[in-house]
Write a structure and sequence with these properties.
By secondary structure, the protein is α/β, with parallel strands linked by helices. It has helices at residues 21-45, 69-90, 107-114, 128-140, and strands spanning 3-6, 50-57, 94-101, 147-150, 157-158. It has four helices and five strands; from the N terminus they run βαβαβααββ. It has a five-stranded mixed β-sheet with strand order 1-2-3-4-5, sandwiched between helices. Helix 1 (21-45) runs parallel beside helix 2.
């Protein structure tokens, strides 16, 4: 394997403060531990080097309130995981970078948007094709440890540049 797109994620049904610790654990297990397990599995197959692209979320960027803090915290941790291990992985010729995405047109986000006020829904929702094209660009980049933020109505930018 030379490219691994690590796109694990999910959120529970109950919002803070009513959420049970079991839901917190399940969300963190999926969104953070699942990503780490994906990274570990991928590097074992990248004998000649490669690229790992972690998919995070805008929920993990900044300090805005979020109804599901376990989701926001786990996605912030994916960002930090990427930057924490990038120097070690580049020694194996493996680059690791993260995309922090806004709204993406998926069945889950479609269901969420059905229950939202139309005024709160962004006009330009990201498509899987948009994301795939940007992933290809990021793979061509020599950089590692990069965190690319991409909200619906903006151009992608590097969080730490």
């Amino acid at each position: 394997m030379s490219v691994f797109v690590n796109n694990a994620g999910g959120v529970g049904d109950v919002c803070f403060p009513d959420v049970e610790i079991k839901q917190w654990s399940e969300v963190i297990d999926l969104n953070l531990k699942g990503v780490m397990q994906g990274v570990q599995s991928a590097i074992k197959t990248m004998d000649s080097g490669g690229d790992i692209i972690n998919i995070s979320s805008m929920a993990g960027v900044g300090n805005e309130p979020h109804d599901s803090p376990e989701y926001a915290v786990s996605k912030a941790a994916v960002i930090r995981l990427t930057t924490a291990i990038s120097d070690q992985l580049i020694q194996q010729n493996v680059k690791i970078n993260t995309f922090c995405l806004g709204w993406v047109d998926t069945p889950t986000s479609q269901k969420t948007r059905e229950n939202m006020d139309p005024a709160d829904i962004p006009e330009n929702i990201l498509s899987s094709d948009d994301i795939a094209n940007k992933v290809r660009e990021l793979i061509k980049s020599p950089r590692t440890g990069k965190v690319v933020v991409w909200e619906e109505d903006q151009k992608p930018y590097d969080l730490y540049d």
